[in-house]
């Protein structure tokens, strides 16, 4: 309250600058009104309350209620408001749709009014709701009935602009929030301060305090001032002492106006159930929708994926009514839009998860269908309670159960829920299976959605706590897949794993039985063995097996277990009981004692073995190590640095080393670039040559044909006189040489290659381009004897003539 006083003084300082005289008068009026109201609190008798005016409420609140047509309080309002005004902690339980929201909003307004709460006083009341939609709904009702008050109210829920919320947190008096976002502000927002909190309200308290929100709620409660008023409301109120202790309630008043009534659900709610096979569900729901086109229907399903699929499928099948879907994985804006659309429309079907099961007050719902069996009775009550709300509300509920789920009806009846079995007229059920199959074959996305829906449903059944009620093994998965239009049932990995695990457990059990048998047999045997001579006993002891043999025996028997093997198994065991039992019966204590291998231990081991971690060694085909240049250090400085075995890291030194290494890296890089350029050039050249080759193919003769020398004059015609027989040399060598000389000579005359001139022009030394053939002539002349040379000269002269 200290802060409150400080703020009051601040306020008076500020007000000096304004015209404040008339306000002073009003203040005194207000004070006396507050005093009067507070004096009346002790005299409230719930039974005497007929209208809201009978409560000692402020004019502002009464006006707000009247404007919204709230004249007569409901049972829970009549009983709870009085105690709440007195400042008692309250545990309120009343049927769904019985007006619990006003039962806590009116006391909040009144308490803050009586304490003259202002913006500067910070958070005075905190309302926590399990879902965003419910928080939004409470916020809207508060805005309506509190319109004449000067308090500021804030809606703090996930999916909204956190920055925007953060800036305004210090100006909010009444905070409506979801647990997650509230904790986020508590942790991250320095402007958030709830040290002067007066009232804490948990709507759907049992849900807020259950396992799902446990840690978040514990953290929130820790941050709240212990001196406060706490109000808990729900249709299925928690009575758990543990929960109440968590909230440190001080002598809470338990208010349950409907506890003595015959039913826990609204009287105007007509409830029925049907039993059908899992593969009939889609057909029945589709037929129901087709037969209730002029109604407002809410269909609850177990998972988001089912909702998504059913919504998309029905949209494609076009039943002739508006369709909506509401589930947690949708974007917040979309969720809000759908919520409002469903509130507004009258002929509409909404597919939803349990997100919409608690607290939401959709107006005038005709039917609530529970397509999948609810987790427990509480969930059933909240789902069904979305219809038949308020004073005049009426509605119907339909629960669809599988044959094995029919036992759930007993639980419902035990919990005072009147429900009747009805049967479906098969002639009225139109199964859209063929259409669905056709749609799925055309639309791969829809098919994938169907597959996900299929798996998610099985998973949800598998994860349910109540195994008597939910048994995934009893589901005809193939038929169910077909009903969703999936001709080939999707793989259900978690089920396959489960089956393997079950098999494993069964075999273990069988083994345990065998071991027990063996133990008893062994005991019996040892007793009888006492009468056998020592020698005989020795001969009966089998040869000791090595550990490895024991292990393989055990494994073998384990994996290939059948009756015949059991015989062998028993036989062997009888002889060597001690050995065979070891691998089978691993004492649990021993298992526990096994030290977990820590990362540090692994690192130590590696260090001991001197293994260089994070290194890769590459080998050639011949087994030689390929050196990785990138990893090896090159500079002397780096080598020295690595060889030093000093703990820690000298950053300056490491920098120097890196700089040194950098030089080598640059060199390596340059070399690489050069090699790359070279390769590019080579490729370019190769390409050019190929292109030239291609040109030849099209332009002239191909290379393989050789150059066309047909235009050259025939050397024989040029040099020959005609009679070759006379000129035949006896010596073959001379003929050969002579021929060469003739060729050279003719080449010189007719084919002086221009290329050589070009080469000379480029400045290449003359020696390197010396015509080889001239050299050959020199060689030849050198190799000839004097006589031969003379003969050759004569011949040449003769030819010239
Ligand atoms: N005094 C009243 N007079 C007329 N209508 C009322 C009054 N109180 C509540 N209602 C109407 O009754 C409906 C249900 O109220 P509310 O949502 O508070 O119920 P609830 O008990 O919180 O339900 P649930 O358990 O499902 O959360 C609302 O439409 C609300 O406007």
Automatic annotation (TrEMBL):
GO terms for MF: ATP binding; ATP hydrolysis activity; RNA binding; RNA helicase activity
Comp. bias intervals (Basic and acidic residues): 720-739
Pfam families attached to this UniProt entry: CTE_SPB4 (PF13959), DEAD (PF00270), Helicase_C (PF00271)
Ranges of Basic residues composition bias in the record: 10-26, 673-687
SUPFAM superfamilies with a match to the protein in the record: P-loop containing nucleoside triphosphate hydrolases
Locus of motif Q motif: 50-78
Keywords: ATP-binding, Helicase, Hydrolase, Nucleotide-binding, RNA-binding
Domain of life: Eukaryota
Region (Disordered): 1-31, 673-756
InterPro entries for the chain: DEAD/DEAH_box_helicase_dom, Helicase_ATP-bd, Helicase_C-like, P-loop_NTPase, RNA-helicase_DEAD-box_CS, RNA_helicase_DEAD_Q_motif, SPB4-like_CTE
Known EC number: 3.6.4.13
Domain DEAD-box RNA helicase Q: residue ranges: 50-78
Keyword RNA-binding: yes
Family label: Belongs to the DEAD box helicase family.
Protein name: ATP-dependent RNA helicase
Species of origin: Leptidea sinapis
